[in-house]
Amino acid sequence: KKQAEKAVHQKKEQSKTKCRKARRRHINLVAEFNRRQRKSIWLETHIWHAKRFHMVKKWGYCLGNSPTEKSYRACYRAMTKQCLLQDLSYYCCMELTGKENELLKQLARICSIDTGLTFQEASCLSGRFEGSLNLYRADRYPEDMLGPVTFIWKPRDGSEHRQLWIWVHPALKQDILKELKAIFQCSEPKEICIMEPVTTSIQEIKQMEVVMSPGKKRKKEDKEGEKAVPVKKIIGDGTRDPFQSYSWISQTSGVAISDRSMEILRYRLIGPLSHSVLTETLKAASVQTV
């Protein structure tokens, strides 16, 4: 009996003593991660990359630059025989909504058929394939090149209104967005992004109280007594101030331009088994008619 009591007592004492890493662990990891994204936005796969890559801060994001281990042969083997996935979510997405004729008319001013495909390509216009081209300043071809972009149309649904997504590199985003707003005359903001900063505000601190009781873990509760669940905050993207407008509309043509950066994730699959991975991962949804 004494030995059993001694063993239980020792077990309780051991559970109280934690290692230095556990003692220094932040009480609310999500709040701490939000605070650390004050200057550089993290991708959805940041935690995975941060454990395996040397991270660099570029274009307002924190990106994986080079692996910490010798994984070049493994990546090459995956590209040639299996499947390799890359996170391209740091690319910026511009969404254009409006009448198809108006969109094609103005977009023809910033591209040329002499360089290859345009936004009017039949296979791309139907929404089946993704296209790529080089953009120029309005009516300035072959001078004043802005940069390469990729685009995809939303498939037709019988309406004359269409949706177009243009993916641009974050280093080219401001110039291309400025040119798109100029050709469509989108000056008035449609929606203004009013979001909280990544740092914890004074109001949040007042709402959440740290309850300390002997022998129990620390828990955060709001003023109503319910447990406060930390929420990950997506503060736009690394190329836009969180308090700036992210959507503009033209009063003359009705075309709307929206900045969908970090709202639509983008991944690239390379390798002969890419289609097999997608087939096993994605399942078709059942269509329900009312």
Automatic annotation (TrEMBL):
GO terms for cellular component: nucleolar ribonuclease P complex; ribonuclease MRP complex. Pfam families: POP1_N. One of its GO terms (biological process) is tRNA 5'-leader removal. Residues 4-98 form the Pop1 N-terminal domain. Coiled coil: none annotated. PANTHER family: RIBONUCLEASES P/MRP PROTEIN SUBUNIT POP1 (PTHR22731), RIBONUCLEASES P_MRP PROTEIN SUBUNIT POP1 (PTHR22731:SF3). This is POP1 protein. It comes from Sakesphorus luctuosus.
